[in-house]
Amino acid sequence: MNLDPQYNPQGKEDEIYRQWEESGMFNPDHLPERNQQGEPYCIMMPPPNRTGTLHMGHAMGMAVQDLLIRFERMRGKKTLWVPGTDHAAIATQVKVEQILIKEGMKDPRKELGREKFLERVIDFAEKSRNTMVSQTRKMGSSCDWSRERYTFDAERNRAVYELFKMMYEDGLIERGYRIVNWDPQFQTTLSDDEVLTKDVRAKLLTFTYDKNFPIAISTTRLETKFGDTAVAVHPDDERYQKYIGKIFEPVFCGKKLSITIVGDAAVDPKFGTGALGVTPAHSMIDAEIAERHSLATVPVIGKDARMLPECGSEFAGLSIEETRSKVQNMLTEQGLLQAVEEIAQALPVAERGGAPVEQLPMEQWFVRVNKPFILRQDTLEKWKKGQQTTLKELMRYAVESGQTRIVPERFEKIYFHWIENLHDWCISRQIWFGHRIPMWYCHECESKAIGRSFVLASRIGGATSLVETNSGAWFNDASKEPRFGSSVFYSEKYPLRCPRCKHDDLGGQIPFVQDPDTLDTWFSAGAWTFSALGWPDEGGWRAHRIYHPTAVLETGYDIVFFWVARMILMTTYATGQIPFRTVYLHGMVRDDQGRKMSKSLDNIINPVDMIEKYGADATRLSLVIGSTPGNDVKLSEEKIAGFRNFTNKLWNISRYILLNVKSAESDAKNPKARTLADRWILSRLNTLTKDYTAALEAYQFSRAGEMLRDFTWSELADWYVEIAKVEGGKDALLLSILKNLLHLWHPFMPFVTEEIWKTVGEKGALMVDEWPKPEKKMMDAPSEKDFSILQSLVVAIRNARSGFSVPPKELLRLTVRSGKFDALLLENMEPFKRLARVVDGGFGGKPKGAITILAQGVEVYLDLGGMIDLGKEKARLEKEIASVSQHVASLESRLGNADFVARAPAEIVEGERKKLEESKARLAALEAQLNSLK
RNA sequence: GGGCGCAUAGCUCAGUUGGUUAGAGCGCUGUCCUCACACGACAGAGGUCCCUGGUUCGAGUCCAGGUGCGCCCACCA
Fold first, then answer.
1. Distance B61 C1' – A287 CA (angstroms)
2. pLDDT, tens digit (0-9, with 9 covering 90-100), for A285-319
3. Strand A580-586 with A405-407, pairing
4. How far apart are alpha carbons A213 and A660 in whole angstroms?
5. Which 362-401 positions of A have CB less than 7 A from strand B?
6. Cα separation, A172 vs A174, whole angstroms
């Protein structure tokens, strides 16, 4: 037996993990027979971004997922936990760019070019992967490394392309010229979810375009006004009705505009002047108005967030701020500015980088969420194959039908609310790191359509301009925007033949060009549950299909929209299955003051540091106990240290038991309960096993953990082990309880339990040993009641000793009377003989110099001899009498209420009566005690 | 502007469908280095369950309103 007085996880954990891994049992195919017969149970690990290292949020997710997997594995399910990482497209590319800039490059992408730059990104991603895998191991995660996946590996790329193809064929992926969110800093589009709003103060200016223009308008974005093509007013607005339908041609800061006055109910007549300058190119709302009234779209801001030549030579190339103040000055000079007001504004900024996001009209790829399509799948209850539905409907259906349940439930509301507001999803990104869009353009088709060879068109800036280039050269030139009409077709690899013009790639030139853009990282992430299980590859998907739908998706609530919703969309569409039965959302891990952990605040707690200092088990406990789903958790090093203390406690309980067990006796099967304490602890253990298992099934991990900790510490260690030391002969019983306890703790703290397990003399790993079953026949309410009386008395005696400052070595005499409980006491007080020696007082009264101790109706006398302090005892009794009298009074008033007696359930009333009786008896006894002191 | 949540001991939080004198951990006070553990043992102090009103025999729990805090969504220009 090699159990040190203090448990040192350092060094042991890696070795234990290595043994688990070598056993092969992280892989469901190598699990014992009992699991092979079991129900499949699968969790897909949310793949962390390959951007460096794991943080406490990841650690929390892993702790919960490993808990679930270990719990279900021990219960005999065929458990698969698939680990993986996410290429995270923009996040990783930005990270690498930042590193390269720090290393001295000015514009890494320009300096390195696409291929060289990508090499650097891939290299960084690989290093990150290695770091994260090792951190995942440190946490004790029992995931199947033989099935490790990467959102950007060859098979996932294949799945992404297949999915893209399906959606393209179903008309759900479309190229469109629309207003998109443009990040001028990283020169890429963003999805709506990647745009945040920042509260800023802005100037709301009221002005007219020129002195002949009859209507004043207000704006915070003066610079966009070069692109105005209309002024919209409410159709019922009497002030402006007479202008509706008229066209004006004001000269705005040197640029001649063509402004149509339109009536549109979307305009709020009470805001500002009640007239709205319509800028269709740079505002989604304006674009909608423009569409209703067939207005022209005139872009005036370019991708570099500078003014386009259309604004006139005076403004072309100026930044937004420069333009804004210049225009304001010009308007002031001309006397056109009527008012300047400071207002609060929600400025759209990029989630990554924080630069203001511009809205520009561009040609991009979109997923159409509201467009009806013909369903390919025949597995959904609501729609048959061949019926029409929309992606939005599928998303709603998965949760509405209860096939996916979100924990905590309130996030279902949030989810539906988000779906309501969901617009088409822009999926093309102008970054280099990611799944290249599998669409190709045929120059032959394009040439035939336009009548010239190798031509391109730029649509940024509204008018189409044609550009001649050398073959193949243009698509790396970011300044040229290819326009693709009928020439576009899907191909996973380099196409050999154009499906339309049947043109072959023969002459060594490059007639086919792939779309230079890549896919939004969430496109591939959305396919995670099924792509990671081998879809669409026939063999792979067939082999893994038993695991789909997966059991639980465990992730942070911050990516419900980014990821969870999109997984539901993609999976239901592509496979006809909902991706997971339960979504368990954990909160954000914050510092002890509730602040986000960040580098600038220097308040980051690193999981690996904590594991090295306190062990993985303590770190896991600190993340799971004391946190509830969907709520943020405050973490501090002290909290982790506290759980380290507990792991040490469990270690020492085990140490005591294992050091004292005599092997011969411990071999006895079905150890029998001999004493009250034995019956009590077995009853408690079995009740606990039942409640604890139920709590885990209900995802109440914190509650389960607290329950088990309280049992382990306050019942087993503080009472039973102490009693066992004196009563003796409990080796087999103790060992059996310990074994059960190790099982129950294993999902929370796999390392220390497995380590102790090595010493209990069982074969095989605890990790796959069978989960304890609660036995009803062991649950023994009368014994629990009797034991609790004993506990109350012992506590009362200790209390008295402490209150009267009785020296620890002083032996006291405890006189019991004849009666059922007193007989029980005589039998069971032996373990507490150091507190008091019990004597049978027959039916005699209280000895002189003794105080009366009352516990749950049992009255005994503790002889304090000369140490009694009558004043103190009197004060104590008076205090207690006051409190009990109050309780009696409240019970009497309740029972005196006729309505209560008539309307409350009989058992409640009966319970109150009984309580009143007991309290009255106690009160009488206390008063008698007090009188006897006088 | 719309939506969601939170408010319980000094701190961090539990408190299931309304029903004991509202609980835990940490911290605090006192005693003890008792042969598993001082990362420990024993005992103790500490609460107007944010406020107001309502429903009910009964409210920390349900309803309405208010206050304070947090989050999400949203291009009234």
1. 50
2. 899 999 899 999 899 999 899 999 989 899 999 99
3. parallel
4. 98
5. none
6. 6
- The residues, any chain, with a CB within 8 Å of residue A60's CB and separated by 6 or more, are A586, A589, A623, A624, A627, A633
Which pLDDT value is given to residue A446? 64
Give the count of beta carbons closer than 10 Å to the beta carbon of residue A231: 28
Decide if pLDDT at A463 tops 60: no
Q: Which residues pair with A685 in a beta bridge?
A: none
pLDDT per residue over A67-101, tens digit each?
999 999 999 999 999 999 999 999 999 999 999 99
Asked if A616 CB < 7 A from strand B, the reply is no
Q: Return the structure tokens found at A410.
A: 């309130």
Lowest mean pLDDT among A53-62, A308-317, A661-670: A661-670
CA A873 to chain centre: 56
Q: Are A744 and A772 in contact (CB under 8 A)?
A: yes
Say yes or no: Cβ of A645 under 7 A from any atom of strand B. yes
Instruction: State which nucleotides on strand B lie below 7 Å from a protein beta carbon.
Output: 2-6, 12-16, 19-21, 24-26, 30-32, 34, 36-44, 56-58, 72-77
Indicate whether this complex's ipTM tops 0.85: yes
Write the DSSP string, A608-637.
HHHHHHH-HHHHHHHHHTT--TTS-EE--H
Report the distance separating Cα A929 and Cα A854, nearest Å.
10
Q: How far apart are CA A594 and CA A806, in angstroms?
A: 46
Give the E-state strand segments of A447-578 in sequence order.
455-458, 465-468, 488-490, 512-514, 518-519, 550-556
- Say how far apart CA A327 and CA A322 lie, in whole Å: 9
Report the share of chain A in percent with pLDDT over 70: 93
Please tell me the distance from the alpha carbon of residue A398 to that of residue A924, in angstroms, as a whole number. 64
Q: How far is CA A817 from CA A783, A847, A856, A861, A931, in A?
A: 21, 12, 15, 9, 20
Length of chain A: 934
